[in-house]
């Protein structure tokens, strides 16, 4: 099987015990993140330290990132806007942050880094810069941020069916590109699924795209916090990601890669900073000479603190070493999958299925090595919103439930097209949403162990509280009654 980023070998000390009941050796300490001491009140009384297992949505902030931003804050000034000391200092730091991100991504000579608001913003920026007549190829398995911008930009979009193996993904793309007419072509693909966590064969897809004269943009939102992403080694033309998934707050994102389409396009936002010269025209209108380089698409006062936070996170992950971080995450993911495997009612969602992993060791170990720390699942007899609400209210665990802004993918995995989930009670028939648990460099072992224990207890004994649907969400019933575990699930309103 061809992976986009080869998993680092798991050392003998981590893989020696693969049974769910066997003793597991101590792991390296997680990276320090904010929020580990936040108390989560429980509906059944008392509180527990909040277990943040929703990294795929927004990762907690690295302590080192927060400290660096706090140290810089007194020196904040408007970037590219003034001759004063603070403005000059901030401008220099902003451009150094750009260079740090470029090194982190292995940018090639001539590539550039544009700071945006998020992955969504980055991909919409690229969509706005497509040459006329561009045909965009995108799998139905993509996050909506990668699935939707191309249509809005007026491009011809070719949606590809969900592949069921990495090999099929490459073959599907090759078949589509070989039948495409001449003209500019772009392929958009994820690095790791935000639903299943499975790593995609980016190198193979990039080689296929280039063989047929197409360019390729990598949605690295879920990959870049977990694995090294090197533009040159992967062979992609652009990479897009979000800072808030990379342990950096403040709403910043990145689009990095080739410059020609970006420089030929009208600015993504028209305004100060994007314009080099503005004058009244002879016809009474306005004549504009636009900037080249990143400034062309960074109009307005940039998010200086957000860009600095992204650069700080890039440095922190590089200094920690991805080999160490990956080995730790693979073991935690293995432990998570092994625990879920012990609950017969749980079905872990997988796109590539038995083609996920090969080699020796447990099934959970093989699957963990071929995905980042993102796992989605459904439980027979449970609506996913109900399970997620009970995990939060009764165990202090934060997960995500729903369709994860990837409706076609979840629909394909569940064999359904989406729709009303029927409230937070156990629905009649199949639930049309799922539970997603996700972890990362700051996840303590206790959080994973607590989650596995909680799922086991909830499936075996039922929730200990009454829940109701309110504004489309499953929430604990105010003044609801608790019951002893083992007496059956409390019915919902």
From TrEMBL:
Recorded superkingdom = Bacteria
Q: Which UniProt keywords apply?
A: Pyridoxal phosphate
Indicate whether Membrane appears among the record's keywords: no
Q: What InterPro entries does this protein map onto?
A: Aminotrans_V_dom, PyrdxlP-dep_Trfase, PyrdxlP-dep_Trfase_major, PyrdxlP-dep_Trfase_small
Give the start-end ranges of region Disordered. Answer: 472-493
PANTHER family in alphabetical order: CYSTEINE DESULFURASE (PTHR43586), CYSTEINE DESULFURASE 1, CHLOROPLASTIC (PTHR43586:SF8)
> Which protein is depicted?
Cysteine desulfurase
Q: Name its species.
A: Streptomyces abyssalis
